Amino acid sequence: NDMEQPLSKGIPAFWARKVGTMFSNIDVTNSGVLTKSAVRSAAGRFKKYYNMEDEDAERIVHAYYMLFHIMAPHKDSITREEFINTVWRASFGKTEATLNRYKNAYSAIFDVIETAKKGRMSFEEFKSYWHMQKWNDSLCEATFKWMDKENNGYVTKEQFNDMALAYYDLDDIVDGVEADEEDGLHTGYNLMWGPIA
To answer: Which Gene3D superfamilies match (predicted)?
Structure first.
């Protein structure tokens, strides 16, 4: 998984792999470059998988565009290396405005996954979303359990947002969890965007 261009100095290798996994999850064409059209293609998978109405599909496009504009402000495309560097810069010394932009984007994604519109996500809803991304049930269960702090069988929007933001933290580095340690790779927040690439 070598990068074509060097990353900014100071980015831990495992953290870069995590964010690279996020990039790959959105880059459904495997081009190594995210564009607005590629983001729309990623959202198009949702429409086909869920047999969605156009209006619901546009909500997904909107949610993904929100993330895209956080990572690539004022740009029409972003490479994998640029993406990782941008997320690194955005994840430290976070301003309240940046945090709110992240939360708004993930809230929009939560609204897409939570199809019953009850304000809380069930395991079945979560599993259905990630099955589309080729997850197996054990990965879905590990991640959902990590989010379900109350162990009541559902996840609120706040819990989902907290988990999404935790993905960018360095706790795994600080705690000495390295990329070759199974426990680190399968910690709940490390699975937000799928198994670490």
So the answer is: EF-hand
The whole-angstrom separation of Cα 16 and Cα 88 is 9
Q: What is the pTM of this model?
A: 0.73
Is residue 137 helix, strand or coil? Answer: helix
In the structure encoding, which two tokens stand for residue 82, read together? 């640029």
In a domain, 164, yes or no: yes
| Within a domain: 2 | no
Q: Given this model, what pLDDT does residue 152 score? A: 93
List, as one string, the DSSP characters of 41-56.
Answer: HHHHHHHHHHT--HHH
CATH code (residue 40): 1.10.238.10
Query: Collapsing DSSP states into helix, strand and coil, what is residue 160?
Result: helix
Name residue 80's amino acid: R
The list of the chain residues with pLDDT below 50 reads: 1-3, 173-185
Note down the domain range covering 105. Answer: 13-189
Beta bridge partners of 78: 34
Instruction: Give the pLDDT confidence of 95-109 residue by residue, as tens digits.
Output: 777 778 888 888 888
| Tally of structural domains, the chain | 1
DSSP category for residue 193 = T
Q: Is the Cα torsion angle 40, 99, 140, 176 positive or negative in sign?
A: positive
> Going along 10-119, which residue ranges are E strands?
33-35, 77-79
**Residue 92 contacts by C-beta under 8 Å, 6 or more apart in sequence?**
none
